[in-house]
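anyone seen this seq b4? input:
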Amino acid sequence: MGDFRLKVFASVAKNLSFTKASQELFISQPSVTKHIQELEAAYQTRLFERKGNSIILTEAGRVFWEYSKRILEGYSRLEYEMSLLRNVHSGELRLGASTTIAQYVLPPLLAHFAERFPQITLNLLSGNSAQIEKALTEHRIDLGLVEGNARQQNLKYTAFMSDELVAVVNTHSRWSKCDEIEPSELCQIPLVLRERGSGTLDVLLSALGEHHIKLSDLSVRMHLGSTESIKLFIENSDCMGILSIRSINREIFSGKFKVVDINGLSMNREFDFVQLQGQDSGLPTLFMNFCQTHYNH
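predicted toks r here
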């Protein structure tokens, strides 16, 4: 339902590329151009301006982009509300999740949700928590799942489940001889950590702050952008990593990794759903309720 030209415009505005929009929407590039030209003719103004090999939004285009996002979201909510009258859930749900959640929590839930609601199209964007919150404020996703304790005032957070970060080494590391260390000893141990903007690093730094330890005090060998890359790094080095306990269950069970306790260092956190303020209905709410009902805590 709705004016397909708005969807075309939104895709071009988001990607700033006619080619990427055609690929995203599975239509030809001339069709994309035609839809944009029809909109520009209808409103008697240019929506995009060419700058060399790239395009940018004009002032009118930026205004049109803001209203288009609201209209498309309205169509999505309308589709959901009308489907409720038929007791049928349909439409598209754009999800975003931080990497730990996307890799180790969501996959079984997505599989069960897709089986229960086959008329709903699911899309998942993965990134660190800051990237997911940014995608939400830019209307690129409908619902996010993030980790960490940081909060933005313009977003609404709903608790989903608890998690714990632990210090982990491979069982051949010299640090595997330790069952417990003091927080101050972290300053002498080579570490591989998540990148800035990740919820994992935020929680670690907050916990270390309680012991007056800063990031600059640590011996960080490398920052990596995903849990899996850190696990592989640890497997092939003498470094220690700080990871979600949920991400290393298999490695602990197989005897590949060992958890080293850090005396007095609490690294507990929540996995949260995150939405724009005032948007608490439709498919995002359906998915939240489904997850909270079906997740095996």
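The chain has a mean pLDDT of 89. The first strand starts at residue 48 and ends at 51. kinda curious what u guys think
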